[in-house]
Amino acid sequence: MNEVAVVGGGPTGLVLAAELALAGVDAVILERRPTPELAGTRARGFHARTIEILDQRGVADRFLAAGRTAQVMSFAGTPLDVAALPTRHPYTLALSQSGVEDVLRGWVEELGVTTRHGAEVTGVTQDARGVDVDLAHGDPLRVGYLVGADGGRSTVRRSVGIELVGAEATRSHLIAEAVLTDEAPTGLRQDAIGIHGINPVGDGGSVGIVVTEAAVGPATEPTLADLSAALTLVYGTDFGVHDASWISRFTDAARQASTYRSGRVLLAGDAAHTHPPTGGQGIGLGVQDAVNLGWKLALVVTGRSPASLLDSYEAERHPATARVLKNVMTQAFLQRGDARTDAIRDTFAEVLTDAGPRERLAGLLTGLDVALDLGEGHPLLGRRVPDLDLATADGPRRVFELLHDARPLLLDLEVPEGAAPAAPGGTGDASWGGRVRHVRARCEGPWVLPVVGPVVAPTGVLVRPDGHVAWVGEGTTAGLEDALTTWFGSASAAASAPGSGGAVGGDRFTG
Ligand SMILES: Cc1cc2nc3c(=O)[nH]c(=O)nc-3n(C[C@H](O)[C@H](O)[C@H](O)COP(=O)(O)OP(=O)(O)OC[C@H]3O[C@@H](n4cnc5c(N)ncnc54)[C@H](O)[C@@H]3O)c2cc1C
């Protein structure tokens, strides 16, 4: 019996499976596609925080090599200054969704995760000890926990009776790849119906088409006749559209699952939140879900933390995603081309001539400004740790390098001026049951947070595997042991693990 089944081998499922594998959990991906190939075009890239997360795992270079970095972020047509944000990756990565999945798949395979292609999940049922998974073909499975990363029409979500709540669709769009007999104007067009575009794809004579429909289309698969009707409404002709290799429909509905967890079943990525593609947020939200959930699920599955730790997944990710969805809804609304919408767009554009509002929106849309509510305290608490240069006993290191194996990190930064960071506390020093990497380091900073600005340099930080700061030392270790216990289980549970020592890293940090 696998400890965890991840349903869906899209971006979210792949990253989650990698996180579980790094934590030593036996997980299987169940993917209904018979082969890895993806039909049609979907995402074209992702933003800075997603690149940072991949950097935290040491694989960002693979994506950067496969794609192209660009300063393409905008809000309703007004460019935003991503380059001004304090990150090593101040850009968006342009890379097709199939390119993203190819790189992720290679990484997941290296980590030894099995993907079962052609494994369509038709239903899940659970009891106190595990989850039974029904497949369209073949024998059912039983697993300890199951995560539905099976996209917007999630079978898992329906199967456990979780509703999507939020703004219903007011418009729908068709997206397609097809051949046109007649010449058509390329590029984007905005009118009172919505936004539309026709662009060449590949060299086979096909074009990529996005067109807004006259009224919200049905939930059934769209047809060539639907595409022809929508083109005719907008352009006055369907340009002799034929040979559609792929047609799909998306709407401006923006909804979230009413809960992200039902017992042993959790939801992540599009299965937990569906929204229009405006602003290119989907992959980033799914990746953030996956890295938030992966280490928590691993601690629960291995018996080190109580199942209640999983409730923090929804408590943290639901509000962070709700914020992004408000922005996506605003941008999708502003895609109309009538006089009133033009007026709102122009008003935004005027406000965005100031650097402050531009940076604030760039912080939100890049995902760099996510601030988890972990209580009062230093501004770093709950935010993502910056990837600063460190001097350690093992030589120079970046903070993100110390997160590659997805273990918690305790950075002890109170090293006297001029002194070398000494053992214990080389980069390999482990404590709290072998779970927490304890590193002594000197750090020159600068401690500057996106949107927030410069902050007082801490004397220590406890960083969760997802890169968020769970405790900040300000000349004292007060609160450290509580933070360690809250997030990574009790010291006594740690002491029972092989090769463990309950205290963290000796002397100063001994609880
Ligand atoms: C036109 C368009 C453009 C977009 N552009 C961008 C963009 O530029 N940037 C961006 O970040 N996002 C973009 N998105 C959104 C992005 O594509 C999604 O948010 C992202 O794919 C979500 O990943 P996921 O892994 O959660 O779900 P999915 O990618 O939907 O993956 C779900 C997987 O589950 C599998 N599955 C489904 N049901 C079952 C089942 N019953 N059993 C087993 N397997 C199952 C599916 O085959 C699929 O592989 C765009 C979306 C659209 C439609």
General description of the model:
With 511 residues, this protein is an alpha+beta fold. It has 3 domains: 4-166 and 255-366, FAD/NAD(P)-binding domain; 172-251, Alpha-Beta Plaits (2-Layer Sandwich), CATH 3.30.70.2450; 389-509, Glutaredoxin. The chain is built from 12 helices and 31 strands. The protein is globular. The protein starts with a strand and ends in a 16-residue tail after the last helix. The model is unreliable at 494-507 (pLDDT under 50). The protein binds flavin-adenine dinucleotide (FAD). Flavin-adenine dinucleotide (FAD) binds at residues 7-13, 30-33, 42-46, 97, 120-121, 149-151, 155, 175, 250, 269-270, 277, 280-284, 286.
Short description:
It is built from twelve helices and 31 strands. With 511 residues, the chain is an alpha+beta fold.
Cofactors, ions and other ligands in the entry: flavin-adenine dinucleotide
What value does the average pLDDT take?
A: 91
Which structural class do the helices and strands define?
Answer: alpha+beta
* CATH class designation of the largest domain: Alpha Beta
Unreliable sequence segments: 494-507
Radius of gyration: 24 Å
Number of E strands? 31
Mind summarizing the main beta sheet? Answer: 7 strands, mixed
CATH topology of the largest domain: FAD/NAD(P)-binding domain
Q: Enumerate how many helices there are, as a single number.
A: 12
Proportion in helices: 25-40%
How many separate domains make up the residues? 3
CATH level-four homologous superfamily name of the largest domain: FAD/NAD(P)-binding domain
Distance between the termini: 38 Å
- Gross CATH architecture of the largest domain: 3-Layer(bba) Sandwich
Overall geometry: globular
